[in-house]
Each structure stands twice: as C-alpha cells, then as structure tokens.
Amino acid sequence: MIPPSINGIRTDFASIRARIGSFSLSELMRALNYDDELTPGVVEGAHPIPVDTTLGKYKAIGGLEMLEENFYQLIDVLGDGYGALVFPITVTKLSAAGKSNVDVLNGCRIMKPSGTYAKNDEGGLMIKVDLYVRYITRNGKTLCPLVLP
User: Fold this and answer.
1) Cα separation, 55 vs 89, whole angstroms
2) Which of these, 36, 88, 85, 29, lies nearest to 61 by C-alpha position?
3) Helix segments in 1-146, DSSP class H
4) What residues are paired with 134 via a beta bridge?
5) Phi and psi dihedrals of 115, rounded to 5?
6) CA-derived radius of gyration, the chain
C-alpha cells in the first residue's frame, strides 16, 4: 500500500516533534529509532509441532543521534548521574492532513552515549545515544498488555 499524500506532500522527519518532559529534542536530533517486540514462549510436547504458546517476553529499545554539542545541552538539563534518571520521550508525528500520531517511550534511561568522530564530518561532530526503554505506547496502545487478565 502506498502511503497517502496530501497535495503531493508526505510525512517526513521534519514532521516529528520529540520531547523529554519540557525539553524539546526536535531541533536537536538527527535520527530517532525505537522498536519493540513480543516473542511468544513455546509450550512443547513430544510432537515436533508446539502444543501452544505463552504470552512470551517483551523487549523495547531506542536510540538518538544528535550533534555532540546538543547532547551536552541535554545532559546539562538532566544533571549528574544522567544514566540513572528515568524519563519518558514523547514523539508526535504530524501529517499534512493535520492528524497526529503519538508514541511514548516510557521508562527511558540513557545507556550508552557513543561518539564516533571522523575527518570531514559534515555538519558537526555526532554522538549516538542508546536508550533503555521499558515499554512503548502508540496512540495509547501497547504491543504487550499492561494489565494481564
């Protein structure tokens, strides 16, 4: 299926607004990635075909890429021990039609800031930040139920 366009305009990276609390990441980040997965547990018997599945294990991860100077602005806001702080990241994606989709990366922690520098870095020195993410909601919905029956 081809994504919809409004007057020839499609949603792009510039339509993303991301925040850590009141701190805006939108103008600071060059890339944002996150995903989650739910891997079913398998109940096995004597037969090679599984008997059933369990809910399984859930895992979410995320990361940012930004100019190094912007990363230092972020950790100045977060303060000392910034790797131990838990915070949400709210990502709002605006469409040309005016509809927005909101993803929330809940329970984030900075795990690994990684600077890789090379000659002729265009646009400045970049740093990648790996994030621990407890779980992700997409328009308020989760891949794995928050409350088990």
Assistant:
1) 26
2) 36
3) 68-78
4) none
5) -95, 130
6) 19
Kindly report the pTM of this predicted structure: 0.81
**Which of 116, 35, 136, 119 lies closest to 71, judged by CA?**
116
The predicted-structure confidence for 129-149, as pLDDT tens digits, reads as follows: 999 999 999 999 999 999 887
Provide the CA 35 distance to its chain's centre, in angstroms. Answer: 6
Place of tokens 């409004």: 6
Tokens encoding 79: 């303060």
Which tens digit of pLDDT belongs to each residue from 60-107?
A: 999 999 888 889 988 998 899 999 999 999 988 877 667 888 999 999
For residue 70, give the nearest of 22, 28, 115 by alpha carbon. 28
> Got the DSSP string for 73-110?
HHHHHH-TTTTT--EEEEEEEE-TTS-EEEEEEEEEEE
Is-contact 92 17, C-beta < 8 A? yes
What the block records as the tokens of 27 is 């103008």
Confirm if 137 and 104 have CB atoms less than 8 A apart: yes
